[in-house]
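The pair is listed for reference:
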Amino acid sequence: MGISVIIFLLIIAGIIFVLFNLYNSLVRARNAVKNAWSQIDVQLKRRHDLIPNLVETAKGYMKHERQTLEAVVNARNIAMNADGVAETGKAEGMLTNALKSLFAVAEAYPDLKANQNFLALQEELTSTENKIAFSRQAFNDSVMNYNDKCEMVPTNFIANMFNFKKEEFFEIEIPEERAVPKVDFS
């Protein structure tokens, strides 16, 4: 009788140990998602901080392009106030489009294109865009890992029991990036 009680207690202890490990793996994955998002947030803040300097530098040269400059400033303000992954992705897509317009218009101003401050800011912004892309990929990888744990047996039982919710992927919505480029050799 004593051995069966010990075996029963060992089985219960084993089950509890497995449940704790499953729960901890979900917490670890959720924290990885939060950490990855904070890395994106750092890069987005850096991007947002660069834009006013870029706009101020361009203002002196682009007196007739007020609408383009205002679009960049407005898009930046919307992006800074975005809340949540989906809203941030949409707002950052708008900001990317506004910046593309600014750089396209800047091509018509040779003095601006030659301005060292503008060139340095443009290079810094390009570098930040690359860091955002890398951070976005790391975030989405973390989200995929976490969501897999929330959906796959046996961790999905623990996830449902303790109300772990799936996370959203971070996608910057720019329709032009989804379109297949047209190649014409004629």
Remarks:
- The longest helix spans residues 2-59.
- The chain is about 80% helix and 0% strand.
